[in-house]
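pinging the channel bc i need a second pair of eyes. not urgent but kinda urgent?? the chain im working w is below, pasted from the shared doc
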Amino acid sequence: MRSTFVSLVFFATMCPVLTQAQSAGSEKDRLIALENAWNQAELRHDVPALSLLIGDPFVFTDADGSFLNRTEWLAHVKNAVDDFQQLGNSSMAAHIYGTAAVVTGEYRERLKIGGKSVERRGRFTDTWILEKGQWKCVASQSTLISH
């Protein structure tokens, strides 16, 4: 009888922990999926889709050190300043802190610069917040990795 009681107490205390762990795992998967959707939208210069992914305010620090706010960054994408041929992420990790999250990873891109096709890779750090049940990226930063 005592072992049954101990088992029930253990189970009752572990259920919320397991549920939180499963929830955190699914939220991490959701953030990774949002990062991948971001790449696809940026490849297509899909400003309406990107507008759904980024918060207001939003700040972007590019690999060259340039700093853009939400309006400037969306105009940058709309005007196809970056002529991407390929863009993808790898080695992504999401870390959740309540209603905030940080996603880090590596990206590879192929784009045209001055009419020439250029391949680059870099690392990124994106900061997300949970607003009304939806994750929104509020800050993004990229750093090129030299070969």
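so Residues 1 and 7 are 10 Å apart (CA to CA). and Confidence is low (pLDDT under 50) at residues 1-22. — does that match what u expected or am i reading it wrong
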